[in-house]
Automatic annotation (TrEMBL):
InterPro entries the record matches: 3-OHacyl-CoA_DH, 3-OHacyl-CoA_DH_NAD-bd, 3HC_DH_C, 6-PGluconate_DH-like_C_sf, 6PGD_dom2, NAD(P)-bd_dom_sf
SUPFAM superfamilies noted in UniProt: 6-phosphogluconate dehydrogenase C-terminal domain-like, NAD(P)-binding Rossmann-fold domains
Protein name: 3-hydroxybutyryl-CoA dehydrogenase
Record family assignment: Belongs to the 3-hydroxyacyl-CoA dehydrogenase family.
Gene source species: Amycolatopsis nalaikhensis
Length: 286
């Protein structure tokens, strides 16, 4: 049963921390792996801050009790006994395939599910990096994970139906999310539509056609979006936005998916949005 899953999460950035949080809030035991001590410490702080906020808002009775179910470590070996691992590291195909190769050797349960939160990298590439592609599936959460109810489930051509069932039970029954089934194409459903829209907004800003405020206010007030596309790019992270655009462009070769030069320059400059304190807008805290 999904409620019995022993969950592992790799990466404790914006998404990994959010996934670990919703799992622990659902009563699951969670091990989170980061790449080095500084990143693990930052991940721990991220979890503490988010859970303290949830407690203050009355969403959970006791942040400390939830935090007790999460262990943050730098050792992938601690994932050995996990029944379901969700990968949420940097959106880089080579780094992710290398991780799946390692997870395949480390995670011992023969029926363990190896899931990826990738936004755009083919699940097939991750599955075939392992000896168990039938147990590899995309489980794509949305940011912020504790708030947004959607999960995209993405089987590759080699994913077994039982793996999809397990992933669905995990997302829907254990975490209370709503799942949609997507094909293994770059961007799945949501980002295949959302990313070209964000890129069009960046091109509009870059060309001087409109200010960032006019673009964002236009979409908020004129199309009832909760936030404008440039503010949304800052929330997603400009590095992730660019990486997803590149995967879409690589897959479909359509100019609408090509990252605009301004986006590339901002990423080169380390202006990654909220997580670094500056993107299209500036933020008090990362
Ligand atoms: P992030 O940059 O906030 O976090 C990535 C984390 O992974 C960092 O803390 C980094 O230290 C860690 N990491 C990198 N390599 C690692 C390794 N080998 N082992 C362990 N940890 C490692 O990025 P974010 O936004 O959390 O994105 C992560 C994944 O989630 C990406 O695949 C992205 O496409 C996907 N995603 C992102 C969304 C967003 O809105 N930012 C939404 C849905 C999916």
């Amino acid at each position: 049963m999904a409620a019995m899953e022993r969950v592992g999460v790799v990466g404790c950035g914006q998404m990994g921390a959010g996934i670990a949080e919703v799992c622990a809030r659902a009563g699951l035991d969670v091990v989170v792996v980061e790449s080095n001590p500084a990143a693990a410490e930052a991940g721990r702080r991220r979890l503490e801050t988010s859970l303290a906020r949830a407690e203050k808002k009355g969403k959970i009775p006791d942040a400390a009790e939830v935090l007790n179910r999460i262990r943050v470590t730098e050792s992938l070996d601690e994932l050995a006994d996990r029944t379901l691992v969700v990968e949420a590291i940097v959106e880089d195909e080579a780094v992710k395939t290398d991780l799946f190769r390692q997870l395949d050797k480390i995670v011992t349960a023969p029926d363990a599910v190896l899931a990826s939160n990738t936004s755009s990298i083919p699940i097939m590439k991750l599955g075939t990096a392992t000896e168990r592609p039938a147990q590899v599936v995309g489980v794509h959460f949305f940011n912020p994970v504790p708030v947004l109810p959607l999960v995209e489930l993405v089987p590759s051509l080699l994913t077994a139906p039982t793996t999809v069932d397990r992933a669905r039970a995990f997302a829907q029954d254990a975490l209370g999310k709503q799942a949609i089934l997507c094909q293994d194409r770059a961007g799945f459903v949501v980002n295949a539509l959302l990313i070209p829209f964000i890129l069009a907004a960046i091109r509009m800003f870059e060309s001087g056609f409109a200010t960032r405020e006019a673009i964002d206010e236009g979409l908020v007030r004129g199309a009832a979006h909760p936030q404008g596309p440039l503010a949304l790019a800052d929330l997603i992270g400009l590095d992730t936005t660019k990486a997803v655009a590149e995967s879409l462009y690589e897959e479909f070769k359509e100019p609408l998916y090509a990252p605009p030069p301004l986006l590339a320059r901002m990423v080169d400059a380390g202006l990654l949005g909220r997580k670094t304190g500056r993107g299209f807008y500036t933020y008090d805290r990362p």
